[in-house]
Amino acid sequence: MKAAVCHEFGAPLVIEEVMLRPPGPGEVQVRIEACAVCHSDILYAEGGWGGHLPAVYGHEAAGRVVALGEGVRDLTPGDKVLVTLMRACGRCRNCALGRPFMCEAAYDRANGVLSLADGTVVEHGINTGAFAEQVVVHESQIVPLPEDIAMDAACLLACGVITGTGAVINTARMPVGATAVVIGAGGVGLNTIQGCALAGASRIIAIDLSEDKLEAARAFGATDGLRADNTALRAAVLALTEGRGADYVYVTVGVISAYQGAPDLLAKGGMLVMVGMPASGKEMRFEPANVAAASQTLTGSNMGGTVLKRDIPYLVALYRQGWLKLDELITRRYPLEQINEAIADTKAGHARRNVIVMGEGP
Fold it and tell me: Which of 53, 186, 188, 303 has CB 3.0 to 4.6 Å from 252, enough for a Cys bridge?
């Protein structure tokens, strides 16, 4: 099958033939029809989080079941499904506590799911390898989808949507009437804004460097937009929150300067929710005494605290009812052969989400 292979960090991906082994016990083989380009894929391909090469990335996908490994139930070939990176063993302590997004079971991404024609093992990037025509993943990574949702819209549910909305609904559990600041109005930021609107926030302040993104933020539910390069950003947030600061500040970009300034925007008793993922080794500085004195909370949000079989049907229902925007998140569709153009456009900051659609000509 064809796949976009990373042979060198920071270099263009190479479209070439790779081998995909059949599904083993507990695994599912899926023909991919759509896969979105996420900043995490880009950061991996640039070497920001390490890993082994060659590798195939891509983890925000939807397609149809081709084959089932031994022991897989409740799925049949032809089923329309969401494919995610969230692999869970179902037996470790975190899985038992209802936190499969923090599964403790180790997974060897160089286990031979993918290989080159000469037998060279290809890393199963981000547990998924969906920048390819087909994947083999663990059944825990699969969620059935209804037939009436388009593949390109559905694939967004696999990461960007659940990461953003889940940060609000699951991680922060933000109450009705709270005030929120969302730093970054890209794909994840827009979904965080959607989550704040769904949760009933009284004020949602989007912060970004791009006027176009601030305009998009308002379309997704933001009540206010502020430029990130505003030298009086704290004063502007205080003015919009009756002098208190925001009850919740969500950092949705992996930019240290955004993290560094975020605590200054919090109210007493407020919560800073860390969603965006900087490259390994990047650090922020803060004064613990200030956080303690203001009774503030700094918390991480991994994949929006998502439980797939609970949250995906809920989000699909919201989409069907017109409460959740998915189609509006798609900036452009590309064939697999143009994946490097899709990545370049995403890196340039032009895209909410670019989607690779399999089977379309270049």
Answer: 188
Residue 350 is predicted with a pLDDT of 82
Same domain, 257 and 334: no
Same domain, 175 and 242: yes
Q: What CA–CA distances, in Å, run from 297 to 4, 266, 272?
A: 41, 10, 6
How many domains, in total, are found in the chain?
Answer: 2
| Residue among 251, 343, 232, 349 at smallest CA distance from 298 | 251
* DSSP codes of every residue in 173-197: -PPTT-EEEEE--SHHHHHHHHHHH
pLDDT, tens digit, for every residue of 172-184? Answer: 999 999 999 999 9
Side chain identity at 241, as an amino acid letter?
Answer: T
Domain of 237, CATH number, reads 3.40.50.720
Q: What is the pLDDT of residues 82-124, one digit of tens each?
A: 999 999 999 999 999 999 999 999 999 999 999 999 999 999 9
Using the structure block, give the residue that is written with the tokens 């208190």. Answer: 244
Q: Could you give the residue ranges of the DSSP H alpha helices within the chain?
A: 39-45, 93-96, 151-154, 160-166, 187-199, 211-219, 233-240, 256-261, 288-293, 308-320, 339-347
